[in-house]
């Protein structure tokens, strides 16, 4: 265990940079913040480089999980505030390794595929919902918001440690799904598509959710085995992407 007292410390400067996408992917590391996320990471036996905490936060952490003191950095409140991506620091942080496979084969199960979703809250909420519904994982297209964005991490609430979450080219992912016999179900705003409540549950599928403003891309729609939509009964033009995804995820769970 070591102590750091200044925001000008080289190690703190390096960790602070992980709040930016460019540096996260250069260093292949990312930062999480808050007791719940850190506890989930510890309980999930996630590999990590450092656990940073104020003295008060560290004492609380000792009650929650076994901690490797060789990786602990005790920090002052001013450093916690400096590193925080939120208005009020939660006083505990963890630096983890980005662990994305270079290749991946989808063999069985139920997956959500996100096509160019850009809102961190929506992406995190969908991943959390997929976890709650017992789905096997989530694929984010390369054009979607970065999985390691602090807002996405907070919205997932630890579900990133329970289900597989992969960020890769969407057409490559869908090709793999098709090669392994997965039906591709695509959500569209089109009344010529099949209503969700007329779709029977299936043992495996890739469920595609599109961009908040523009929906699913034409290239992806062209690959659909089935196009589906949620009927709108009131005057709203459409549903929020995360809400729509949640309805469909639980329908097929």
From TrEMBL:
GO BP annotation list: methylation; RNA processing
Keyword terms of this UniProt record: Methyltransferase, Transferase
Domain RNA 2-O ribose methyltransferase substrate binding intervals: 31-102
Cellular component annotations (GO), alphabetically ordered: cytoplasm
InterPro entries found in the cross-reference section: Alpha/beta_knot_MTases (IPR029028), MRM3-like_sub_bind (IPR053888), Ribosomal_eL30-like_sf (IPR029064), rRNA_Methyltransferase (IPR051259), SpoU_MeTrfase (IPR001537), SpoU_subst-bd (IPR013123), tRNA_m1G_MTases_N (IPR029026)
GO MF annotations, alphabetized: RNA binding; RNA methyltransferase activity
Record's keyword annotation contains Transferase: yes
Transmembrane segments annotated in the record for this chain: none
Entry similarity comment: Belongs to the class IV-like SAM-binding methyltransferase superfamily. RNA methyltransferase TrmH family.
Name the UniProt record assigns to this protein: rRNA methyltransferase
